[in-house]
Amino acid sequence: MASKEQTLFRHVVQNYESKQYKKGLKAAEQILRKNPNHGDTQAMKALILSSQGKSEEAFELCKVALKNAMKSHVCWHVYGLLYRGQRNYEEALKAYRFALRLDPESAQIQRDLAMLQVQMRDYDGYVQSRRTMLQARPQNRQNWTALAIALQMSGDLAGAEDVLQKYEESMRQTPSRGDMEHAEAVLYKNTIIAERGEMERALEHVDSVAKMALDKTAVMEMRAQYLLALGRKEEAVEAYTKLLRRNAEHREYYEGLEKAMGLDRSKTEDHQKLGEMYHSWGMQSDRVDAPRRLPLDFKNGDAFRQHADKYLRRMLKKGVPSTFANLKQLYSDPEKKETIRELVEGYISEQPHTNGGAERSEPNGSADGSHPTTSKPHDSATTWELSLNYFLAQHYDYHLSRDLAKARKYIDRAIELKPSETDYTYHMTRARVLKHAGNVAEASKAMNEAREMDLKDRYINTKSAKYQLRNNQHDDAVATMGLFTRKEAVGGPLGDLLDMQCVWFITEDGEAYLRQGNLGLALKRFKAVFDVFGTWEDDQFDFHSFSLRKGMVRAYVDMLRWEDRLREHPFFTRAALLAVRVYCLLFDQPLLAKGGGVNGEGAEGAAERKKAAKKAKREAEKVEAERKAAAAKKASPAKKDEDGEVKKEDADPLGVELLKAAGENPLEEAMKWVGPLLEMSPRNVEGQVAGFEVYIRRKKYLPALKCLLAVSSIDPEHPKCHEQGCRLRLALEKLDEPLPEKAKQVIDSEFLQRFASKGSVEECNDEYLAKHQDSALHVQGAVRVRHALHPDGSGDVKEKSVSDLQHTLDSASTTLVQAEEGLRVLSEVVGADGKAREAYVGKARERCLIREMLSLLLAAAFATLSSFATAHTGAETEHTQGQEPFVGWTKDDLDAKWGTDWGFSGISTFAHLPHTRCLQHPDTPYDIAILGAPFDTAVSYRPGARFGPRAIRAASARQTSFRGYNPRAALNPYREWATVIDCGDIPITPFDNALALRQMTEAFTNLAFSRAPRESVESGVGYRRKPKLLTLGGDHSIALPTLRALNKVYGNVAVVHFDAHLDTWHPAKYPSAWVDPDNPNEQSFFTHGTMFWVAHNESLILENKSVHAGLRTRLSGIEDNEDDTAQGWVRIACDDIDDLGAAGVAKQILDHVGTETPVYLSIDIDVIDPGLAPGTGTPEPGGWTTRELIRVLRGIEGLNVVGADIVEVAPAYDGVGETTALAAAQVGFEVLTSMVKRGMGEDGKGGMKVRDEL
Hints:
By secondary structure, the chain is mainly alpha-helical. Among the domains are: 3-162, Serine Threonine Protein Phosphatase 5, Tetratricopeptide repeat (Alpha Horseshoe); 174-281, Serine Threonine Protein Phosphatase 5, Tetratricopeptide repeat (Alpha Horseshoe), CATH 1.25.40.10; 764-871; 917-1069 and 1080-1240, Ureohydrolase domain (Arginase, Chain A, 3-Layer(aba) Sandwich). The two termini are 67 Å apart.
């Protein structure tokens, strides 16, 4: 090239190194215009493109460069760099070596080769590269140190010491005392001498370099360890004494001192001397804790009681919150645990003013919580009392001493003792108690309340987010974490958490999605964890040169050894176990990866085709929007991170494509996790169990046997030993082809003789079940084996399994987690019906073994339902094909021909929706259900609303799915994302209101816990995850049982109440009520005008968030409104619409309630003027028009409606035109439209995530 182009090429290199990529590309283009085949320039351009995230384009260009300049070291070097960026280290190594062969003198290539060799742990090659680099630049100390490290890591400790010694001998002048690189190097040399086992020489060396070493603590620790190893105990005592004077809380120093003094904790005769030693150290400072705490580890009996009493009084007097944390490791000794309990409970009986022999004291910031407070303590509370209750709450919450009722009692008492000064510490413990009790919803709420007490504390913020994830509140958890993330991060708070490698959050989020059956997002989160560990591994590249340059040699060697064991990290193990579980599920049920879209023959199932047809229109509408978005995205500049590098947008935010790819070969994907898991954590039982599950599915019987034997050696009584042993026997009995001879010999000697010498599998399983009938996990394993033997559940197999699983709930040792696993087995393995599952849940509830059991029940039943649906579809297809007139017709063809009704034809369901008696078929999935509640025996004037549901359904006859498009909302609520069905009526007794209330409460509760269709749950839109009910009344009293049911799902909800009447009246306001104020359960309390008063007393309604609208009734006095205000309601009178207009009324409701608060929408038809809607029980003249009500409803469609009712339609008083029923049907259509639109997102096309109502 000409000199000008050579200068430009140097600029290209400089621009790449300074990350000025645009300038670099511009300069490269200038060169290539004159020299289009210049390989080096093409290679540098490829390198810049790779840095901009264009990897494919970069590889293609680099290959062209290699063709143009095959013997260019630059091209081969760049080729290696591109492969290194793709983590293809083998190919990168080949490219570097070829580049080095072309230019042996290149220091840059040699350095990159060396970095890659140490990264790949090719220490022999690394030694060779470092020798070459040292010969090229012997004046650089880094090269000497690097060679010593290479020799040490390759096992040549003598060679490593020799290299360091030679450099020291070659130094012409002694380094200054402040030379950190030299100070670290001499200590590094000392560690090598010690690793060689030459302790005497290591001691001499550390003494000789002590003055020039800057890390004085490390020198003192080394010296003490060497003296102890050499048996020079007097000097070791002196050395450890000096260390303790520097840090009297370091427990390892005390252990060293004990050994140096020749004292042994296991010998009773040494206890007195040990006690004296610790006493002397404890007397040196009133603030030091370790010498006071450590004697509790070895003291026993009365000596332990006396010392524990002294220690506890001291700590509790100060109000130290970590007192229990300091002592809980002693609980492994039952005697010590009981002694501690007796002591602390004994303190409770002491008078507060005595303070346990201590003076009354105020808690400081570190003792009573996170921060000090200026408010005065409660008159009857002291730090002593507060600490006692807090300690006992933690004691009874701990798994080795658990009594959750007492834990709850003590933590509540602690909070009550000093409400003005209780910091979040106590509320956090209360949340933990609730979590252990299985009430994750309340635990999440309590932890969030604790967080709100200190919004600047990152720790409690993190705990709150974790508890929200445990309650499956993904959006809330992300929002909570977002308070401490970068606002400008690409992808929002979640994107920043991924960038910051927040492994705990990613893992918890994935586990929450897995609990909900969202395999795509669960797998996406677990893959993110896998990638984080890969990134940590790749991050070593930065330290291979940085640590040597800065001289931090010892830390660098520690890092290399830590990286070698990186994947034994607990979070990798946890994510691996969960990911393997998903992959095994995908292997067992391949339809899960494909959305259940194929049947056994590979043809599309009829049900899926119907769903596809339903989505076709919506997908078609997205095409143009996506095209425009893509064009706009291409035109806009790419987002970059803080380093100026391009930040890629997530092309698969819901993990759909990832799930499909995983479904192609799930076991190969699982092996990516299993390999490191078994290698790094061989003693982890769960890891070996997961390995067996993968290998047995791959028909790799020897590795499966190896895992089984590992489990047996770690824990011979582990439930999986029996279950997996039986499964392996069954697999070996059904081999497609015989095993190789060597494999057969190993299996015969190592497995069959040990695991299969007691008769048949069934006999062994029956014997095992009888032996372990009271152990939940063992019984569950035996049940799995039983159904592996009898997969069809023939005979009494299913009944036996149901009985055995229910029997485990009688055992006091059965935990909540084990009960949940039993429910999974009952649903997924046994395939029990709804009645059996409900019986199991009911029995678990009796023992308080309950944690969102109903939602888990439905999730666990998913596999059974899916297989039933597939079988049903197959049977239906077979039947259809068996009818001669229908040969060649598909179900879609028949639906198109016969599947619709006229307004005057068909059975009477709301809008001709599909009808299912949901209370009889609780497994029916839906997003929105219409439910009738024909009840009217709680009215105060005209009865007849029991016929309301039938009248409203009849009036909705002209509403059909094929002509249901709502122009104002631009959607058809019956043909969008939501599955809308008519669930029929609740059969409510008209003779006994108390029984009627119980029937309605139970019915609404059961339906509130129903499951949404799978595609709605996996949509990523929070609003779709919980099914919604639109209830047709019935009189207005049906709102009370509905609110009770909603409270169990959402907690307290706001109520938006359209009515002419308040309905918050006290029952005594009615004449002849004869109300007993001391018995709120009287039937007379339950009326259509008092149900909101009862709901308020039961704390079902959010105060100061609920609204009446359309009021115009007469009152018994101003106190009616005052009572209503006291209950937290806001009133909008009917006349207000004259001043505000419909839009103003809607705005007032929206502003007061908000768009995220869960809302129950309750519409009494008498809000409409009786001239337009006469068919109602308590008509009031002067009401709104039907059009005004509908306009208001449309104006509030942004509300987070979780349930609704339309009540008080009494057709007996309606005219021949059925105007009241028609109005109610139209109102129902508008409410449905708003619910569906809310679930689609603000863009109206389903593309915007909506905040989960939870």
